[in-house]
Design goal:
The structure holds 2 protein chains of 2 kinds. Chain A is α/β, with parallel strands linked by helices. Chain A is built from 10 helices and 15 strands. Chain A has 2 domains: about 1-170 and about 250-320, Alpha-Beta Barrel (TIM Barrel); about 180-245, no CATH class. In chain A, strand 2 (about 25), helix 2 and strand 3 (about 60-65) form a beta-alpha-beta unit. Chain A is globular and about 60 Å long. The two termini of chain B are about 25 Å apart. Chain B is built from 11 helices and 12 strands. Chain B has helices spanning about 15-25, 45-50, 50-60, 75-85, 100-105, 120-130, 140-150, 175-180, 225-230, 245-260, 265-275; strands at about 1-5, 30-35, 65-70, 90-95, 110, 130-135, 155-170, 195-200, 205-210, 215-220, 235-240, 280. The chains are: A alpha/beta, B alpha/beta. Chains A and B meet through helix 4, helix 5, helix 7, strand 10 and strand 11 of A and helix 4, helix 5, helix 6, helix 7 and strand 7 of B.
Chain lengths: ~325, ~290
């Protein structure tokens, strides 16, 4: 299985490859990618150099152009695709159907991956992307169990890629407007969720209150560590009680499921976190490289703690085990 | 400008659901009605018996009927259900997930607000593949709506004009989670909340609404004050999404403004009376946070 690692900067790209990534995914420093954070991502020149470095080390670069183009500005996204192809990208990761259609027509030999933002959650939806645009791989949503992944992988005619580590979307990816409801910026349109520009913390006698767009997302007792107010991971109040109504603040860690994912026929494993620093990239990539190599040697993956890198210092097998079903 | 009624998103008692549509057929001045359970496939069997009667009554009253597809399709039985839906050739399917397009591609269909169409190129692709009407995603600002509508002069472009806005869909059921039940054994607790379950902030500020696997806004979209702007932008249809209030009167209120019988101000006051205790919002269409209202 191919190990695919995130890079938000050229130095993270080099770190990921040094640590054992088979491929690195990254995006341009504008709204065409779904991690559009200040100071992050690649200029055209940086991408070109990054691709040259990767290829010299036998690694691949996948370019994410995975927000939904803004009306009347579609050319900006099309140019991003043209430039990525021109720079020698090994694949484009795309979410918008109009842009997929453009890439399929303009660059018919370019390898196209269906972004997780496209929400292709079953074999029929995936077949639509394969038949219509010649998609070669689909990144599966984080709402599926390992058994479901195996079933899908058996049935579809393209490769499947799944997330194994990092931040976890609670809602179906690419189909969530919670952030734009509270803060006016969304993953689909601006490539940001729960934007830092709309976050505020308030210290009171009861502790720290975190807000997004004026809405209280969480409150932490004085001795409790205050997490980032990602909307769907907040504590809220209902007639049936208060608490983490949608999801506890945990990160995905599927290290223990690698063998099952391999048996399921999954082609590639993806680590989330283009916004994360080099320390995260190095440690997490190295961990998964070792786990995969151990697996290749016929041994069980050894479990090393990745706790310091998980949200709220807690991890979950996510939907892969579906304990809530 | 057309008025359309979106599908009931909540888990209403089957008889109440049937009677709601019978009254819509008989009394509501809407042109198009989208029916079918689109939120949770576990609820569908409850309405199946009434669906043919509802469709017949609506069509008999001259309404165009659309059959909505499930928003999130993952289980085998859900795929089968989509396959059967798309095989029907007497009613137009309203596509809420691209799963449908595998079989509907090239045949006439409608697109619902859960398909990501954010720009004119994507919209044009769908029209080429058979989309006759498109309800755009609720988070789109007017600037985008206008560009898309201008690019598709022969397609009915619809926007979400009344009701709590659907904001997210999940594989996990939050009604079940709150009631400490598993999804497979949920006992259909969502039926206790015919207008959704209120989710407030820890400061008791109104925020969101839970409807099983779906999350909606607390605030109710109302674009009754924007109708002139929307008309100028090329919008051809306004969607009203059923809430637990008198939807016939809501439809009449919108129709009166469309036909020039009522001012937007008077209509807005009337809507507050018909759906009391819920704040209105029009932020999305104005390119502002969705909850805001101006």
């Amino acid at each position: 299985m191919e190990l695919i690692c995130p890079a938000g900067t050229p130095s993270a790209l080099r770190s990921a490859i040094d640590a054992g990534a088979d491929a690195v995914y990254c995006g341009f420093n504008d709204e065409t990618n779904a991690r559009n954070f200040p100071g992050l991502n690649f200029s055209r020149d940086e991408l070109r150099k990054g691709i040259a470095f990767a290829h010299s080390r036998g690694a691949r670069i996948l370019v994410a152009i995975n927000t939904f183009p803004r009306a009347a500005s579609v050319a900006l996204w099309q140019r991003a695709a043209d430039d990525a192809v021109d720079a020698g990208a090994d694949a484009l990761i795309v979410a918008d159907i109009g842009l997929m259609d453009y890439v399929a027509r303009r660059h018919p030999t370019q390898r196209l991956h269906v972004s997780v933002q496209a929400a292709a959650a079953n074999p029929d939806a995936i077949a639509f992307y394969v038949e219509s645009f010649g998609a070669r791989r689909v990144v599966l949503p984080r709402v599926l169990s390992v058994a479901e992944i195996a079933e899908i992988t058996r049935e579809v005619s393209c490769e499947t890629e799944v997330f194994v580590f990092g931040g976890l979307c609670v809602m179906a990816e690419g189909r969530c407007s919670l952030s734009s409801y509270a803060a006016g910026k969304s993953p689909n349109m601006q490539g940001v969720c729960s934007p830092a520009s709309h976050v505020a913390y308030e210290e009171t006698a009861q502790g720290t209150t975190s807000r997004l767009g004026g809405f209280t997302i969480n409150r932490f007792a004085p001795q409790e560590a205050a997490g980032y107010p990602t909307l769907c991971k907040g504590r809220f109040s209902t007639a049936h009680g208060d608490g983490y109504i949608f999801e506890d603040p945990v990160s995905l860690d599927a290290t223990m499921l690698l063998k099952g994912l391999r048996s399921a026929g999954v082609a590639a494993l993806k680590i989330e976190g283009r916004q994360r620093g080099r320390a995260y990239i190095e440690s997490v990539v190295r961990h998964f490289r070792r786990a995969l190599d151990t697996l290749e040697d016929g041994n069980e993956a050894d479990i090393v703690s990745l706790k310091p890198f998980t949200e709220g210092q807690a991890s979950t097998l996510g939907a892969y085990r579906k304990t809530w079903r | 400008m057309q008025l359309s009624l979106g599908p009931v998103l909540y888990n209403w008692a089957p008889e109440r659901w049937r009677d709601f549509y019978f009254r819509i057929a008989d009394e509501a001045p809407v042109d198009v009605v989208s029916v079918g359970e689109i939120v949770c496939s576990k609820r569908s069997p409850f309405f199946a018996d009434h669906l043919p009667d509802v469709i017949e009554r609506l069509q008999g009253a001259g309404k165009q009927v659309l059959l909505g597809s499930l928003i999130l399709v993952s289980l085998r039985r859900e795929r089968r259900q989509i396959g059967e839906l798309c095989a029907a050739d007497d009613v137009l399917v309203e596509v809420n997930d691209l799963t449908c397009l595998k079989s509907l591609k090239g045949r006439p269909h409608a697109i619902g607000p859960f398909v990501n169409i954010y720009n004119e190129t994507c919209a044009a692709y769908h029209v080429r593949e058979g989309a006759a009407r498109i309800c755009l995603p609720p988070e789109l600002p007017l600037s985008s709506v206008a560009v898309i509508a201008a690019a598709l002069p022969d397609t009915v472009v619809e926007i979400f004009a009344f009701g709590r806005v659907p904001l997210a869909i999940s594989a996990r059921c939050y009604h079940a989670r709150l009631h400490k039940l598993s999804k497979d054994n949920c006992r259909f607790v969502c039926e206790q909340d015919p207008d959704g379950l209120a989710l407030k902030t820890l400061d008791q500020q109104d925020f969101l609404t839970i409807n099983g696997v779906q999350t909606l806004s607390h605030a109710c979209t109302s674009l009754v004050g924007e109708i002139e702007t929307l008309r100028e932008a090329g919008v051809g249809s306004l969607r009203l999404s059923p809430q637990d209030c008198d939807m016939v009167e809501i439809a009449k209120t919108f129709r009166d403004v469309l036909d020039g019988r009522s001012s937007a101000e008077a209509a807005s006051g009337r809507l507050s009376g018909l759906y009391p205790g819920v704040a209105f919002a029009n932020g999305f269409v104005r390119g502002k946070p969705g909850f805001s209202y101006a």
